[in-house]
Amino acid sequence: MAEAQAKAVVFDDIREDTFSRFCQFAYSGDYDTPAAQIVPEKDPEGEAGMVGKADTGDEPAPIAANPPAEGSLEDPVLPAPPPPPPAAIDDWGVWSTTKSKKKAKRVDLRRAFDLKTYEPTSPSHLATCKPKENSSPNEDYTQVFLAHARLYVFAEKYGVENLKSLTLHYLHKTLLTFKLYESRIADILELIWFACSDENTPSKDDELRSLVIHYVACEDANMTKSEDFLTLLEDGGPFVRELWLKIRSDL
Known about the structure:
Radius of gyration: 21 Å
Largest sheet: 2 strands, antiparallel
Mean pLDDT: 80
Helix content: 40-55%
Low-confidence stretches: 46-78, 87-95
Strand content: under 5%
Strand order of the largest sheet: 1-2
Structural class: mainly alpha
C-alpha cells in the first residue's frame, strides 16, 4: 500500500481539531470537549420572542427541555395544577381518552430518549462524563455538539467502534442537560444540518442521525418557535420524513 511505503497516512477529509481529538483518544482512550462560546447578549428590545423576557432586564427563562433540579435558581414557583377533567363522552357514547393517551405517549418518547445508553469501552467514562450544563442563553453550544458529531463521523468512516460509542455517550449526556433557550435553538439546528446530512450519515439507520432526530422529536413544540426550523421543515427532504415517522410512531 502507498501508506506503508510512504510511512504516512493522509486524511484529507477531516478537520485539524477533530484529528487532534482522535489522537488524544488513541493514546488515552478519551478526548476533551470544547467549551461553550460566550456570545454577547442581545439588547432587550432586539430579542424578539424570548420566553420570559421582562422589562427589568432579567435573563429569559429557558424552554423547558429538562426540568431544573429542585431548589435551583431556575426552579419556578408554580401553582399546583388543577385535577384533570373527566374524560369527555363523544357522540357515540364512548369515553374519549385520545388526549390522555397522546400525552402518555409523549412522556414515553421523552423517557425513551433519557434512558438511551451508549456504553463506552472503559467503565470509568460512565462516571467521569459530566457535561457542563448551560445556565444562560448566551452560551453557544454549537461547537460542543459538532465536536462530538464530527468525531463520530470520522470513527464511523474508519471503523473505530469504541470511539463511536464514546462520542454518542458524550453527545447524549450533553443533550440531556441542555437547557433549550429559544435563542439556542440555532445550536440544535447546526447539529441537525450536520448529523442528518446524507454526506455525513448516508444510512437512515445511523445511530447519530437517530439520536438527533429522537431529541428533536421530543422538543418539536419548542423547536417550532424558530423560523429557521420552520423553513427547514418547509424544505422537506429525508430529515422531515424521518422526524415525522419518529413522532408518529410514538403517538
